[in-house]
Specification:
It is built from three helices and seven strands; from the N terminus they run E-H-E-E-E-E-E-H-E-H. The chain has helices spanning 31-55, 118-121, 143-155; strands at residues 24-26, 69-73, 80-89, 94-99, 104-109, 114-115, 128-130. Strands 5-4-3-2-6 form a five-stranded antiparallel β-sheet, covered by helices on one side. Strand 3 (80-89) and strand 4 form a beta hairpin. The two termini are 23 Å apart.
């Protein structure tokens, strides 16, 4: 699969917004993927540093559009990560971003945002949002408790997943792959 330079977004196999569904976030657990993510992290920092230097001399107003991919610092550690601009707040001179690899949100000054080059958008996302197949509430426990206990068990160690259904997504609808 190829991405055209003008296309917005990131290459990913299974990444969807997860509103109102009990879901898990999974990530690949393979040595090659970890190496690729280490390379990505180093490359993002280098690109952001060079762009921040260049930004002093030029205006970047064209990139501040909702849905545009960017590089944005995470407020907790100050390092740059891939992100998508969710909302532009011109009154505050800030943008709301979603860090796509770690699914965290932040509000940042526009001056801290960098353009995300195509090369970095071709790397698959770190996490995928999925719905578990066959998990049902029972007579003794509500679904929230079932998912809470399952999440606790899964957090204790590594596990393998198998995609058993990848729904056809109609235009305008969002659906989660089942594992």
């Amino acid at each position: 699969m190829t991405i055209e330079p003008w296309a917005e977004g990131f290459f990913a196999d299974f990444v969807f917004y997860c509103n109102g569904h009990p879901v898990l976030y999974i990530c690949p657990l393979v040595k090659e993927f970890a190496q690729q993510m280490n390379w990505l992290h180093q490359k993002v920092q280098a690109v952001a540093a060079s762009q921040m230097q260049a930004a002093i001399e030029q205006e970047q107003a064209a990139m501040f559009v909702a849905g545009a991919p960017c590089l944005a610092p995470y407020s907790e550690d100050g390092l740059y990560y891939r992100a998508i601009i969710k909302k532009v707040d011109d009154a505050q001179d800030a943008v709301h971003v979603l860090h796509v690899d770690y699914l965290s949100e932040d509000i940042l000054p526009k001056r801290d945002i960098c353009e995300c080059p195509l090369e970095l958008r071709l790397i698959p996302l770190s996490f995928a949002c999925v719905r578990l197949a066959g998990v049902q509430p029972n007579a003794k426990r509500p679904i929230a408790e079932v998912y809470g206990r399952l999440q606790k068990l899964l957090a204790e160690g590594s596990f393998y997943v198998r995609v058993i259904q990848c729904p056809d997504v109609e235009e305008g609808k969002t659906s989660l792959p089942e594992i």
